[in-house]
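Thread title: Can someone regenerate the structure for this chain?

I was given the following input by a collaborator and told the matching structure tokens would be attached. They weren't. Posting the sequence so someone can regenerate them.
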Amino acid sequence: MSFSSNMGISPRKLRYDVYSYSYQQDSKTPLVISVLASLIERTLARNERIGRKCGFGVKHNGFKTSVRVFDCNETPDMTVQSYLERIFRYTRAGPSVYVVAYVYIDRFCQSMPEFRITGRNVHRLLITTIMVASKYVEDMNYRNSYFARVGGITTYEMNTLELEFLFLMNFKVHVNVSVFESYCCHLEREVSIGGGYHIEKTLRCAEEIKSQQREYDHISRITL
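Best answer:
Regenerated them for you:
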């Protein structure tokens, strides 16, 4: 994805979007979502090339089977960009949540060398890390059952994915400000060729907690 040609985002526009972000129901989609989607899609493409050449060779031993909890039976027919936009549309999770979710994904991949992000597991990995990140960053959150409906899975699956993820991560979910800023810088470098973008540099202050959170009566259905 080319940010400069596809979205026409300038550094000034992105900074304004981040620092003046409103948590009202009519808020626009945070620009960091497009940055994260592009990064993950490039990772997917790279892993697919590696998979075609070498194969992932996932065996059914205890360690590797537990990671396969994120696999869908079939590859969902929804792009990463569309899925992230859907999650935002129904949860209104702020920009910091997606940065922290990216931290979790990177930590998870580093701690599980056998794990590869693929089209079959990326959606469940995203809804899980975003839900956990939301619980870490936000003061107010939806229930797991609501995140499950948004993500297109059952409540049982959502609860299972959360527990598996936390145990595989050894509950290392703390993200301090310096780590947060370093991942922001990494995201900036990833898209610098497209024009250079500045992503949020500080965790959202308590005063910026979204004032209202109402559940949507009708959530469009997807199934993973």
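The radius of gyration is 17 Å.
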